[in-house]
Design goal:
The protein is of the alpha/beta class. It has a single domain, classed as Decaprenyl diphosphate synthase-like (Undecaprenyl pyrophosphate synthetase). Helix 3 packs parallel to helix 4. The longest helix is centred in the middle third of the chain and has 24 residues. It has a six-stranded parallel beta sheet with strand order 3-4-2-1-5-6, with helices on both faces. The two termini are about 15 Å apart. The protein contains seven helices and six strands.
C-alpha cells in the first residue's frame, strides 16, 4: 500500500457549476468553498500532512474584473471567518504564488500565515496568483544571480515549494485533462486522477475512492 503524504488538487468547475445550477458563476465559487471545507476534514482523517489547492492562477487575471473582485472578496471573508478555526485545528496555511493583491488581502494572507506557522497537523498550501513556468524562471534567475550550480537539488531549493515534499497524488475535477501550469516540476512522478465531476459536486466519497485507488497502484519510479 502506497504511503500518502501530499495531495494536490486543481479545483476546476466552479463557474460551470454556478451557471448550470444558479445561473451565476459567482454562486459556483461560493459553493466550491463548501467542498474545500469537506476535503480539508477528509484530508485530516486520512492523516495526509500536505494539501495543495490551486485557487487562482496567473492566467486567471484574464477573467472578467467583476468575477475576480468577487473571488478575492470570497477569499477575504474566508480568511476572516476561518483562520482562527484553522489554527485551533492545528492547520498551517502557506501561500505559494506572488502576493500582488490589494494591501488588505496581502495583510490578511500574511497574518493568516503568521498565526498558523507553528501548526503541524496539516499544511494547506494555497496557490494564489501562481504559475509554474514563472516559478521555474524565477528559480533559474536566482541560481544564476547567486552563481549556484544548476541541478535538481539546487533548483528545488529556490522553488516556492521548498521544504514541501512533492505531491504523491494530483486530482483535477471538472472533466478537463491538463495541468494548466500547476506544479509542473513537482508533479513529475505524481499519480494523476482526472475526475468528471465539477468541484462543487465533488464529495468525501469521491475523494476517498481516489485515495484508495492511489494506494493500490504499483509505483515503479522508472524501475520494473
Amino acid at each position: 500500500m502506497n504511503p500518502l503524504n501530499h495531495v494536490a488538487i486543481i479545483m476546476d468547475g466552479n463557474g460551470r457549476w454556478g451557471l448550470r445550477n444558479k445561473n451565476s458563476r459567482n454562486a459556483g465559487h461560493r459553493a466550491g468553498l463548501n467542498t474545500v471545507e469537506k476535503i480539508i476534514k477528509e484530508t485530516i482523517k486520512s492523516k495526509v500532512k500536505f494539501l495543495t489547492l490551486y485557487a487562482f492562477s496567473t492566467e486567471n487575471w484574464k477573467r472578467p474584473k467583476k468575477e475576480i473582485k468577487f473571488l478575492f472578496k470570497l477569499l477575504e471573508d474566508f480568511l476572516k471567518d476561518k483562520v482562527e478555526d484553522l489554527n485551533k485545528q492545528k492547520i498551517k496555511l502557506k501561500i505559494i504564488g506572488k502576493k500582488n493583491f490589494s494591501s488588505k488581502l496581502n495583510n490578511l494572507l500574511k497574518l493568516s500565515e503568521k498565526k498558523t506557522k507553528n501548526n503541524k497537523r496539516l499544511q494547506i498550501n494555497l496557490a494564489l496568483n501562481y504559475g509554474s513556468k514563472a516559478e521555474l524562471i524565477d528559480a533559474f534567475k536566482e541560481l544564476k544571480k547567486n552563481n549556484i550550480i544548476i541541478n535538481e537539488k539546487n533548483l528545488s531549493k529556490y522553488l516556492q515549494t521548498r521544504n514541501i515534499p512533492d505531491p504523491d497524488l494530483l486530482i483535477r475535477t471538472g472533466n478537463t485533462k491538463r495541468l494548466s501550469n500547476f506544479l509542473l516540476w513537482q508533479l513529475a512522478y505524481s499519480e494523476i486522477f482526472f475526475e468528471k465531476k465539477l468541484w462543487p459536486d465533488f464529495n468525501e466519497k469521491d475523494y476517498n475512492k481516489i485515495i484508495r485507488n492511489y494506494k493500490s497502484i504499483k509505483r515503479n519510479f522508472g524501475k520494473i
